Amino acid sequence: xxxxxxxxxxxxxxAPLASANFTVPGGYVSTAPLVMDDHVLIRSSGTFDGTSPxxxxxxxxxxxxxxxxxxxxxxxxxxxxxxxxxxxxxxCGSWPEQVIIAWSSGLLEARSSDAGLPLWQANTTVQGWGxxxxxxxxxxxxxxxxxxxxxxxxPSNGTLLHATxxxxxxxxxxxxxxGTVHVGDESGRLWSWxxxxxxxxxxxxxxxxxxxxxxxxxxxxHLQTQRSSLVQWLxxxxxxxxxxxxxxxxxxxxxxxxxxxxxxxxxAAVGDVSGVHxxxxxxxxxxxxxxxxxxxxxxxxxxxxxxxxxxxxxxxGFFALAMTSERADVVFSSDLRGYGTAPPVMCGEGWLLVKDxxxxxxxxxxxxxxxxxxxxxxxAEAPVDKSPVVWTLALMVAFLAGSxxxxxxxxxxxxxxxxxxxxxxxVALMPALMGWWADQAPQSEGELVxxxxxxxxxxxxxxxxxxxxxxxxxFGGFEPRPTPLEATTVAADSLGLSxxxxxxxxxxxxxxxxxxxxxxxxxxxxxxxxxxxADAYALPSSxxxxxxxA
Length: 550
Hints:
By secondary structure, this protein is an alpha+beta fold. It contains four helices and 40 strands.
């Protein structure tokens, strides 16, 4: 027993500590990652010169990229958080769990949370840029702040339920309180709107670049002015619309304010170039507690009893301040430093840290974080394939039945009795035979089939071609994808084509493109037709993928 314990301890000492450090290519990472069950979504804004488009990437263990969603490059960086919409239903329909992405190109879209496949899309107003505010999940649906208004959309298919116009805004999510929507704009107007009614507004002093906070029966706003900022609180009237600002709760603040966050019904945290303050509402004004003396200019985040944020300085780190007596402040010993606005996010029992330059680090060794792979101390039991048991038993019964019939009545009766069991064995054996055949089939690599009409910038990458009945469409110039299915999804999404997929024994197959089914679709890579589904074939980084009707 003692020897076995020594071996276990020795194995634990040899097991490597879990860690994940990588860099997101192409642009800036200014928004909080979204942690899912088995992957993490990280958004990059793209580069200002347009050489790298904005993207949302799904990262798995050790920073491996599982899938990528590519957006349209615009003059305005994409800085809205990616939002998880839980599965649900309402009067407008039902929907699965989905990821909501707002693009500065004006596109709003829903993707499947597991594979990033498109579910629906909607276009919104563009004036210089489109969507820059994080979508908000409310009981009534999706609350979307557009460039010049507010929309309420159905999560089932993106249908517009209600909409109104407001002033021009930037990074200004809305808040819904008792059925009334509140949103600020760049000119300092705080708008209030009940769907189905006309909007109204109150003039304030400075730009409102965050969602108004519902605090103690009123709204807290942190207004940005040219060289400073101002915190104000406006009580809500019986009509659920704000009245004149409370002079007792008027608090001057520093320049370049952060996005504030509500900690509970009476307490909020605000930040600016001078640090972070916690404000507790009292009748006589704010009870102010200074918690940090470093510049914080991005979103503040409340999670798990901590207030988190990123210090925006050349040597800036991160902070996680305890907001309850059960917690203690977290001191990050990470070497990851620099300018940043994305707050730390809990990943399992550890923390996911991101800086503007795209550097990512998991701080902590909890392997429940999807980016970390645990020590291989135990071998997981593989799922049992019961088909060999079925065909083995069927063969045994066929042999016994045939032998008995042959002994009693001759070979014809033996064949008659054993045939049904032989058929059962063959049916049970088919999936294994098909999988073996697919594994053994040589994956031929053909030569690149190039069309001189395509842009030269596509030549070294992947090109996807759809041979539709009335036209041929091609798309290239995107970041290489590992499988034909992922490359096809990117191309179809960029070209505005719909796809229908079905899963078969040899993998996933495309059965319809833009509603066209006919006798089905087949694909070729560099002129060669693979023997497996589009999700199982390793797509070369330089290749031409062609889809045509069978």
